[in-house]
Amino acid sequence: MPIEILMPALSPTMEEGNLSKWLKNEGDKVVAGDVIAEIETDKATMEVEAVDEGTLARIVVPAGTEGVKVNALIAVLAADGEDMTRAAEGAGEEAPAKAAAPAAAPAPAKSEAAAPVAAAPRTEVAADPDIPAGTEMVSMTVREALRDAMAEEMRRDADVFVMGEEVAEYQGAYKITQGLLQEFGPRRVVDTPITEHGFAGVGVGAAMAGLKPIVEFMTFNFAMQAIDQIVNSAAKTLYMSGGQMGAPIVFRGPSGAAARVAAQHSQCYAAWYSHIPGLKVVMPYSAADAKGLLKAAIRDPNPVIFLENEILYGHHFDVPKMDDFVLPIGKARIHKPGKDVTIVSFGIGMTYAIKAEAELAAMGIDAEIIDLRTIRPLDFDTIIASVKKTNRLVVVEEGFPQSSVGDFVANQVSQRAFDHLDAPVITIAGKDVPMPYAANLEKLALPNVAEVVEAVKAVTYR
Amino acid sequence: MATAAKKAPAKAKSDSKSPSAPVTPKPVEFTKDQDLNAYREMLLIRRFEEKAGQLYGMGFIGGFCHLYIGQEAVVTGLQMSLIEGDQMITAYRDHGHMLAMGLSARGVMAELTGRRGGLSKGKGGSMHMFSKEKHFYGGHGIVGAQVSLGTGLAFANRYRENPNVSVTYFGDGAANQGQVYESFNMAALWKLPVIYVIENNRYAMGTAVTRASAETDFSQRGVSFKIPGIKVDGMDVRAVKAAGDLATEWCRSGNGPIILEMETYRYRGHSMSDPAKYRSKDEVQKMRSEHDPIEQVKARLIAKKWASEDDLKAVDKDVRDIVADAADFAQTDPEPDASELWTDILI
Ligand SMILES: Cc1ncc(C[n+]2csc(CCOP(=O)(O)OP(=O)(O)O)c2C)c(N)n1
Ligand SMILES: [Mg+2]
To answer: What are the pLDDT digits (tens) for A310-330?
Structure first.
């Protein structure tokens, strides 16, 4: 039996990659552990090691191929003593089908294990009034937008510096700080030991002394080690000092579920930090918002919690090409205007809202989508203006349901715009359980598009 | 102090019993059976981890997956010094620890694939696995958290006045977390029977110890708390066993905590998605060819004529069969029932 070599998955969120290089040629002998090829993902270049012994009978996907799906057949290995030409031909028969339909590759778990949220469909996005009409747009990933925001602010202000685990030499665990060490040097791009509570405190102290730290948490799950310094020191000093000193600091990093990283690595912190007076909390969805709001956060004289999302890092969006693109913190964005129902969401929750909107449109329901962008202070003006128009509200987020952001929105809207509501507000959130590891359970624990569609149907009495 | 001691002879007596600081013991001599066992145990971990890497590439295992390849001697050697009831706790690089504790390869592998036959019913995954029956307390994803927990296990032993020790593993990177030192202080203050095993594999993700630690001699990290520590060749299973004997004896005699710094090395990247560009291929190759824990035992078995190449091949075949069976099980066992989403949240 020839051994099929499939495109390997190399990270929790990888769906495809580029096959940049073959290090073995057809006819070469291969032993387990040999590096046979190099694969490029959006995060890194990885080596593919052979796991079996044999002779490389046929290379199915040539070097330089982009967008090779995980589990697609990339080469065929003839086992020791096997006829090489036969092996190459035998596998060749099924190869085209497999390569074309990687979903059918022999790994049933994979289809379920794929990243829980794929890129949202490209709907027409309403113009952001904060971007001048006619501005040229460039497509970039959220990852690049965040990096550019930091680089621009570091060029602009010598007091801005970045610190965190693996931010410098490793170029960021999720490659958000790529290139910053090279441009700004180790004084301003600082690798820390794994000591979150300590370096969060060091950051706050430096901020109290007037520097403007950007503290990266590898993920916000690890900021729970540091939450005392964030809440008790960063958020309260301005108040406790009677306004004498505060902490102009940004705490940023990915928050929420990635893919299959289970209970201790999959929590959304939007609601947690939104509870705290003295903090601002920003959670962008698009690359443009990521860039404009991170720049605003760095300039803000207050502590800002900036919540990113690992799955969104690789998503592409249009970003205005401007010398200095800064967005206001505390202002929601109407992603898509509509008249029948208001769907409020933020961060990765937007992907569910956007997909649901497309399905609803097909049913003749015209939904307005609002992207909160900032969780604290929350832009109720925009929400209430929308509810006055649609009279119905659904809120979508990935975090836990109790005391969620949606709960707060629902509460405020019912107090401030009760007479305008034609139905109770429905909040869609993650399930009230720690994030399970199993692929099927993880899927169940997260919100889904059908739930959003159902909620909209309920509030519109359809 | 001295006068106080004179006035309270009972106390003075226990003070004077304070043993001299332990030093790194010589590697123990293994019997043929011990060497054969160690060979088999370490090989099982290695083959298991190789298979796990393979299943990850195929998409059967998701999320983070941290392989223990290269570090097998640490857990295998220490396990040989333990008695029934001793507890073990570690971080996310935990597959080898579970196998060494005698947990079934099927149960561990099925947890990696998130199936119902997994040790946590598929709900914990690679980083979060537990076994009450074998006194394995996890499997923890938050760097350093297990150190306080392990100290708490030792607290329970002292409380119940049982002879057991808590073997608390953590990495060179974790050794910088604040709660480690809070735990050290309490463990020393209350003389808790805990062995802090620092698996110094020279890197925490992409950070070499010299870039993250002001004091890189981890065996001395307990000095301020009067916790003795020794450095151990963590690539030599006999050296590890010798250190394990010393440390368990130290703890069981009521001397309180002890630190074992295991000098070891991981061959693979930090997790599956780490390209490991922070170290040279030569460095990895040198460790593999000169210090491999399994090759060391193999060479000894052959030199002493305790086993032939064929005997060892047979062991390898056995081990491969166990791993293949575990992998088959882990791929075919069903996912957990949907109702499991809502179980085990509260009792
Ligand atoms: C509190 C916390 N911070 C950061 C991380 C991310 N992280 C996971 S493993 C790791 C490196 C730990 O290295 P070390 O303690 O040396 O253990 P090793 O991986 O070498 O076994 C980091 C930074 C985490 N899981 N938890
Ligand atoms: Mg380490």
So the answer is: 999 999 999 999 999 999 999
Near ion ligand 2, which residues have CB within 5 Å?
B 171-172, 201, 204
Q: What is the CATH number of domain A1-82?
A: 2.40.50.100
Mutate to test the interface with A, among B69, B130, B273, B284 (most CBs of A within 10 A): B273
Is residue A250 within 8 A of residue A312, CB to CB? The reply is no
Cα A356 to Cα A382, A451, B48: the distances in Å are 21, 9, 43
How large a percentage of chain A has pLDDT more than 90?
Answer: 76
Number of the ligand 1 atom closest to the C-alpha atom of B172: 16
Residue B93 CA: which ligand 1 atom is closest? Answer: 21
The gap between the terminal CA atoms of chain B, to the nearest Å, is 50
Mean pLDDT of chain A: 90
CB pairs A-B closer than 8 Å: 179
Q: How far B1 CA lies from chain A's nearest CA (Å)?
A: 35
How far apart CA A39 and CA A56 sit, in angstroms, is: 17
- The answer to whether residue A197 is catalytic is no
pLDDT in tens, B150-179: 999 999 999 999 999 999 999 999 999 999
Average pLDDT score over residue span A377-396: 98
- A331-458 has the same fold as A135-318: yes
Q: Is the peptide bond before A12 cis (omega within 30 degrees of 0)?
A: no
Q: Can you give the pTM of this predicted structure?
A: 0.90
Residues B192-228 have pLDDT tens digits of 999 999 999 999 999 999 999 999 999 999 999 999 9
* A73-78 and A54-59 strand pairing: antiparallel
Q: What's CA A149's distance to the chain center, in Å?
A: 16
Closest Cβ opposite residue A439 in set B53, B127, B335: B335
Measure A46 CA to nearest chain B CA, in Å: 5
Joined tokens for residue A458: 């309920």
Domain ranges of chain A: 1-82, 135-318, 331-458
Domains of chain B, start order = 32-328 (3.40.50.970)
Q: What is the mean pLDDT of residues A239-256?
A: 97
Architecture (CATH level 2) of domain A331-458: 3-Layer(aba) Sandwich (3.40)
CATH number 3.90.1150.10 given to A135-318: no
pLDDT computed for residue B258 by the predictor: 98
